[in-house]
Amino acid sequence: MAAWQIHNTNMPLVDLHIHTYFSDGKYSPEQILSRAAEMGLKAIAFADHDNANAARHVRALAPGVVPEVEVVPAIEFTTTWPGLDVLPGGSDVDLLAYFVDLDSEALKTLEKAEQEDISQRIADCCQRLTETGCPVTMEEVWAENRRQPSLASLSFALQHRGYAGTQEAAEELMFAAWDKVRPCKHEIGNVIAAIHAAGGIAVLAHPGAIARPGGLIGADQIRELAALGLDGLEACHHRNEGEARQSLLALARQFNLVTSGGSDLHGWWHGNDRLGTQPVTVEMLDALRARHRQIARR
Q: What is the distance between the terminal CA atoms of the chain, rounded to a whole angstrom?
């Protein structure tokens, strides 16, 4: 079976896209691991935004503290894709990094740079909100989550300030200001190279969520990323449904890319109901692992 194909299965066995409270998720790594074990998942990946601290946290726990579920080292990095035609506010393009070396200095350098960048952008967003009559500070954003600032924390701060009565209203207010904030500093080709330098493989996250005027990205765009060293596409995601998923699977086959997938669990709006809901199999994880070995040999 080709690496890009998905088996029919009654229950997915892995979930390779999960967020914890080390970025913008609700739950701790231990809570997610416990639920994953109850469900019979064989492996999961904590793909927090711009840091791998959840995987480091689990690694440091004493044996037997958490269930025996494989934790694949992963991160979801924020990038920008120069030359890609996107809708206003849609400049952020996410890259999933799998099997990164958690002790790599190259990885830690990239994490630090990415976290500084997102902090600067959120601070700018706070300033723009303040100028429009909704004063909010970075201190209030940090108060929502001391581990890392995020747009989720900013939206909660806006609600606690009384500017919005619902999450939807808070996000509408926030994104009106966020659309005026500068793009991410980190270009996608450079981040792909940095992921490889950190011992990992690079997978384009939820391609169906990339906001392009012309719709889903196609062969020309994937050819460009493949030439930059992209290793895979996240085909199994709730934002890649129906024809979009089939198109991504065909593109993965065309350009010899592996596929990944996951629930993109955050926990704030759906609890942990989404955990393990995408058809991601052990065979897909094995294909990612094989691609990682190829990168390591090179």
A: 24
